[in-house]
Design brief:
Layout (H helix, E strand, L loop, with lengths): L25 H11 L4 E6 L5 E5 L11 H12 L8 E5 L3 H10 L3 E8 L4 E8 L3 E8 L9
Parallel strand pairs: 3-6
Antiparallel strand pairs: 1-2, 4-5, 5-6
């Protein structure tokens, strides 16, 4: 089915996407992603035996599938060729430079500082708690068209 076939009469079967990450120190991970990055709590469930889950809202979800050549290109542009993890989480933010600084202060390791990409975003890369590699990106305004 191509995009043109998805209509209000043909509802999308997927209603939500969740990335599930097992973490040893849930409190530290929640402090980083909720408090430092600013993802609001959606649901917290405590269960028997100390089992606990915290689900955080992260805005709109997409699944980006890239072939090895694209990943190599992204790594070259975004991180000076430093290879990315097979699975990397990307968050769109309003100010990637400021949020990068905040997350480094909150314990993330800077992999690549913010830089403008050919696709007009300002991207940085971090190694974050829960052993996740994170890209922050800020969509930039399109280049101004020359005036006639």
């Amino acid at each position: 089915m191509d995009e043109s076939e998805v209509t209000p009469a043909t509802p999308n079967r997927v209603r939500q996407m969740r990335v599930v990450v097992e973490v040893e120190d849930l409190d530290a991970a929640v402090a980083f992603y909720r408090d430092a990055l600013g993802l609001p709590e959606h649901l917290v469930v405590d269960s028997e035996g100390g089992a606990r889950v915290v689900i955080l809202e992260a805005g709109s979800a997409t699944l980006e599938l890239s072939n090895p050549a694209q990943v190599k290109l992204i790594d070259a542009v975004e991180a000076d060729g430093i290879p990315s993890a097979r699975i990397r989480i990307a968050f769109e933010v309003d100010d990637s430079a400021a949020v990068t600084d905040q997350l480094v202060e909150a314990g993330a390791e800077l992999v690549a500082s913010p830089r403008e990409t050919p696709w007009r975003s300002l991207n940085s890369r971090l190694q974050a708690p829960a052993d996740l590699q994170v890209t922050l990106f800020q969509e930039l305004d399109p280049p101004a068209s020359p005036t006639p």
